[in-house]
Write a structure and sequence with these properties.
The chain has 9 helices and 12 strands. With 278 residues, it is α/β, with parallel strands linked by helices. The chain folds into 3 domains: 95 residues, 4-hydroxy-3-methylbut-2-enyl diphosphate reductase, catalytic domain (Cobalt-precorrin-4 Transmethylase, domain 1, 3-Layer(aba) Sandwich), CATH 3.40.1010.20; 81 residues, Rossmann fold, CATH 3.40.50.11270; 93 residues, 3-Layer(aba) Sandwich (Cobalt-precorrin-4 Transmethylase, domain 1), CATH 3.40.1010. It has a 4-stranded parallel beta sheet, sandwiched between helices. A 4-stranded parallel beta sheet has the order 3-2-4-5, with helices on both faces. The protein has a 4-stranded parallel beta sheet with strand order 7-6-8-9, sandwiched between helices. The termini are close together.
Length: 278
Amino acid sequence: MKVLVAEKCGFCPGVRNAINLARQTLETDTKVSSLGHIIHNEDVVKQLSAAGLETVDSIDAINSGTVLIRSHGATLEEFEKIKAKGLKIVDATCVLVRRVQKIASQLNEEGYKVLMIGDAGHPEVKAVVGYAQDVEVIGSEADLDKLSLRKKIGIICQTTQSPDHFAQMVAAIARHGFSEMKIINTLCRETMERQQAAVKLCRQVDIMFVLGGLHSANTRKLAELCKKHNPETYHLQNWAELDKKTLSGKKTAGVTAGASTPDKVIEEFVKNLREYKN
């Protein structure tokens, strides 16, 4: 089978940095805990767990050692709680997420009502919300009904959202009659480039595969975008999840991957797909 791989896919710099920091810390520190999964990829989490990284959901579960802040970041309250317990901190927050946190705080100080376009349940969004006193998370136009009107609003966005969704939501917010809007583009360029490359590729193939964790927001967004342009799009974590029946009659396949998908997973999938005979 002919297999084409997206020009831009796999680990982004932020994820690669977080994993490298985790490995370096595990080599020097005897007890290392990650506040939540370091990235949204089960294979990587299992590998680091085998090396000694303990994943916990709450700071209350950590009594000693080092706390690794995942790539999605943490709230100011969480940082303060960790420091109060006398624990060592290794901060693997993505630099772009840290930028959004600073922008949210600055907008708040300037008197803007901060609106963040994104998924309220996503760890990155939770970490950003914790950096300003009054932030409303807007996931869809339906959420706009809960807004309390203000003269000044500042709009930011979850880094892994698509430019189209960002633009759509900004337009919807603008129709609500605010006198002043300050819009700051906080989208991740790496994410945008991956989305553009994936859409371009999925239009050229019979079947499209998007590899990555099922809980990964950027991977799910890739799959959603590809499916709009190619209904034969499948979101899988690895080769083991592939239903070979989907390959029946297909001559050309496309492969892309989310920002937290290891190169090894992509390489194995592509190799097996190229060797597969219908």
